[in-house]
Predict the structure.
Amino acid sequence: MRLKLLAFLACAPLATLTQAADVTYRSDIRPLIKAQCVECHGDESPTLADFLQEQERFKKEKLGPRFSSYGELIQLIGWPDSGAFMRRLDDGANSPTKKPGNMYKYLGETDAIRASNLNLVKAWVGEGGWNLNRWEMVGDAAAVSKEQMDKLKLKY
Ligand code: HEC
């Protein structure tokens, strides 16, 4: 028993590293979204373009933009809605207001699950790719840079 625990502890840091390198849409992100997000972002939801045109109406209907495929999801990360996924899911650590995004709560039932799922989506998006910038500069907030875009991993 004690030996097993030691073996587990010895492997744990390695396991975390391997996981970060191997996070894929198919094996990690799609199941997470299916469990936590499709209720409001699934096939019944408007396309991003339709959503952006009539946000107020869709908000009242509790519908967010549809991202039931890889291609649809990427639009909320890279372009045209650059950084939307990161702004809504960040726990506040990367935000000037330090407030979590309003979709952070859907990452899981407990603090521990939310933190672990946030690490998973961050690893998938890529270090340095995870930033809250938009395509255009807004007020003091810089626009997303080519260097930041280059760091996006988003492995399928
Ligand atoms: C109970 C319904 C519900 C759930 C569950 C939900 N969302 Fe949302 N989401 C919405 C609604 C409604 C909006 C639009 C209103 C707003 O902007 O806050 C939205 C907006 C968003 C946006 C911003 C879209 C844009 O173009 O501005 C993102 C990104 C997002 N959600 C991601 C997620 C993720 C990722 C999950 C799962 C971890 C999730 N949401 C779970 C209802 C939900």
